[in-house]
Structures are given as C-alpha cells and as structure tokens.
Write a structure and sequence with these properties.
Subcellular location: Cell outer membrane
Protein name: RagB/SusD family nutrient uptake outer membrane protein
Shape: globular
Family: Belongs to the SusD family.
Structural class: mainly alpha
Organism: Marinilabilia rubra
Number of helices: 19
Number of strands: 10
Radius of gyration: 24 Å
Low-confidence stretches: 1-33
Helix content: 25-40%
Keywords: Cell outer membrane, Membrane, Signal
CATH topology of one domain: Serine Threonine Protein Phosphatase 5, Tetratricopeptide repeat
CATH class of one domain: Mainly Alpha
Oligomer: single chain
Amino acid sequence: MRIKEYIKYGLLGLLVFTAGSCEYLEYDETSYNRKEDVFSDFGRTKNFLTGIYSYLPTDFNSIDGAMRSSASDEAEHVWDLSNVQRFNDGSWSAIQPLDNVWGDMYSGIRAVNLFLEETEGQEFPEERWNEDYHEMMEQFEMYPYEARFLRAFFYFELIKRYKNVPLITEVLTPEEAKNVAQDSFDDVLSFIVQECDEVARELPSDFGEFSAVKETGRVTKGAALALKTRSLLYAASPLHNISGDLTLWQEAAQAGKEIIDSGWYSLESNYENVVNNYTSSELILGRREAATNGFEKRNFPIGFEGGNTGTCPTQNLVDAYEMVESGLPITDGESGFDPIFPYSGRDPRLEQTVILNNSVWKGQVVEIFYGGVNGQPKDNATETGYYLKKYVIESVNLEPNNTNSKEHTWVLFRYAEVLLNYAEAMNEAYGPEDAADMGMTALAAVNEVRQRAGMPDFPAGMTQDEFRAKLRNERRVELAFEDHRFWDVRRWMIGDETTDIYAVNIARNPYGGFAYETTLLEERVFEEKMNLYPIPQAEIYKNPNLEQNPGW
C-alpha cells in the first residue's frame, strides 16, 4: 500500500490500525517528491508516526493463532497443527523462524530513521496561518521523542531475542543494509538506556494535560522510564550477566524507583481491570486495537456459541496460585489446601485469570469434566482442564445474526510490573529487606502488589534465595498471559525446569462433586540454545556479516 493510498483511508485513532499497516512503508523512496508530499504536511506526518506505532507488539494470537504463552509452561494450545507447537517440540530453526520479529522491528526502525531525517527542522510553513498552528506545533515538538522511544523499544525486542544485532540510526541504502555488522548486546543496551533518559526529559507525563488535543496511547515520560527499567532488568539477569555484576541490578532498581517516586501511576483496586482498559490508573503504555472478536473466537470455550478454544492454561500455572488465608503454596501441608475442592480459598487472581470447572461464564456453569458440555471428549475441548479468561472479553457475542465486537488494549507496561521489577532488582542487589538509599525495600514493593490482589504479605526474615523463589512465583501469577513468562524463564535460564506440562482430568461423581487427578500432558524440548532466537537464515544469506547465535 502506497502512502497516498494509506492516508486516503485515514485512522480510527492513534493506536487503532488496519491490517494493512505493515505495508505502510511499501513505496519507492527514490522519489523525493513523494516523501516531500508526506513530510511537508502535518496531518500526513502525524499519520506516518502513527503507522510506526503499529509495530508495537501484542500477543493477541501472535503466533499462528496462538498466544506465545502456549510456548511456555503457562499454557498449551489445543490446535496441534499451530506453529506454536514447534517451540515445544524443538523443531523451530533458523530456516523456519516462527515469527518475523527481525523483519518487523527493522522495518519499524527504518521508518523511525526516515521520520527523524525528514522532519528535522520542519515548520510546515504552508500551515502557519491555520488557527490551530500553535497547538499543531506543540504536538509536533514531541514527535521526534516519541519516534526515538519507539526505535529504542524495537531494539529491546530485538536484543531480548537475538542478543547481538546491528544498531542502525540512519536510513541505509539496500546495499548498505546488506553489509552491516552486529553490535554487542551491551552497546545496544547502552543506546536504549541513553535514548530512554533523553526522551524522558522531554516527554510529558500525561498528554491529556500537555495538549489541548485529547489523545491516549501516546508515549509518555513514564513509558520511557518503564522501558529503561525493563531493559536493565534483562541485562542484569543471569542470561546476560554471567559475572553476576551487582551494579546492573542496582541500576535496574534505580530506574524503577524513578517511576515509583513519581506518583503518576497507582494499582487498580480490581485486578480484572488491569487489561483491556486504556483508562486504567495502572497502565503506563498499551496498544489499543480496533473493535474485533477474533481473540474471543480463538479462546471462547468449546460449547459456547462461536467458541473454538485456543490457549488453555496449564495445571502448572494453576498450581502457582497460593492459598488466600495462609499465603502458602498448595504444596505446603500447612496451607489449608483441600484436593477435593482444589479451587476453594485460592488466590483471587486464579478465578480472574482462568475459567475453572463449575465456574460461571456468560451466565452458564462451565462443565469441563469428562462428558460435560465444555469438556472432553468433545473435539477441540481443552486438554488441560482449563480455559483462558484473562484478556477474553465475556460480553463479546458470537451468536449468528447477533455478533458484536469490542476494543482490546494490550498492556505493554503497567505499574505492577514496575513494582515487581524493582523488587527483583533490589533483592539481587541488597536482599529482601535492605532499602539501601532507595527508600523502599524489595519486600515492601512486592507486598503492594499482593495487597491489591487480596493476598497476605510476604513474611519478613526470608533469605535472598527464599525471596527470589517467592518473587518469581508472584511475577508468574500477577503477569500471567501478558507475554512475560516465555521471556522470564529464558533470562533466568530455567527453561529446562519447565518442560513437563501438566493437566487435570476431571470426573463427575455420581453422588455430587468432582474428582480431580493431575496428569502429565506433555514433555517438551528445551535446549540451552533456545534461550535466544536464531537469526533467520534468510537474513544471513542476504548479509554474510551476520553471525548466527550459538547452537543454531
């Protein structure tokens, strides 16, 4: 789609894009007049930047109809032929990559570089006499900083997958692009952090107060700082911090502290409101999607009109939810867990994340037991004994002749993650209960998250190792299905501990109640090389200067 064609169709909102947005830059850049047409007009320039936002990732069925969660121990995808299964059986390779992140992120980066090059010093003289010229230029002054943030975000997406990648900050010719060499992880990380620092100094904390034009979804100061703390957390983690350098953990904690001290964000009182809610007090940056029902079609339980089942939570994940009264894991004999009523008295986030047997969905009792309306042996019924609830909008109607759609908002950064990032970094740098000069301990930060969920505080007196284990579990529960677990197990280098996937078989007792039996569903493959993605072989064919990641 050429730029003029794209502009003709317009945009529904700042972050509501058409399926054709990835074609946004498919035009002949040798034509200077065409670029001039775009960047000499404020509206077209704004649309161009908006198109760059479309490269921000989501995990709404991102891999062949599946969430990336199905390639972690969070979930199993019910469709055996989905390409996401290749993550699990070890058949993914450089020749057959499972997503096009390399290509997509570099397309986004090239768009940013072009935008920055073409808009430098632009004043839109032909629009100088417009009544809204001052407001227009007020917006435009922020655009380079937004673009630079997006480029930094795209580079983070690259280094967390591929580690060493080419760092490109100018528009290259096709021939130049075929000869670039990789920069080190550390160098690209330094670039990301520096960009975050510089744009954070210029961006407002809230565009609603900054501009007379009300817009949501734009990059803010908080988003830049959130990217900084996440990037530093990854750099400090075992995968990239082989020497265990505590300085990296300290820097990650300090970055999180900037957001915590700002007071810009607060935890939602209701955990269910943290996703699909672009007005959330907790949301730092989200990607708004146009009204659709595709995610619901993929994830409504079998037995509900239009439901096809898709990403199904595992018993592994369900077992991670502690008991609400004791705050203890269900494996602890003192926890109060009752295997006859396995979902009773659990962390409230369980029922807010997972559709359980005998729970209510769309006004109906869900029957996941064998022979039930929503259970085996129905075709495509869940194999794990659970259906996905988080991010699935219950009010979507898939009944023929009465179908509706809803807007979705994918969370890219939220305040609870910042608190958990801070807690992890503080524990590794100083231990659970030493605030150093930060003002808040790791223990205090994680307890804020637990208090919102209605869970007891973590106890005082834990060792660093004990706190680490409990924090990792808390992160797993709080951030479930937000595209964190897949990456966390890699940066922690514990992928080989997540290969046994468990389900629950549920039988209905003839005299009432149910019998629950945990069973091994799948033994997955995880090798050390899988902590990183392979660089697509097609890219290496085009550019022999690229070095493949070890083992691939």
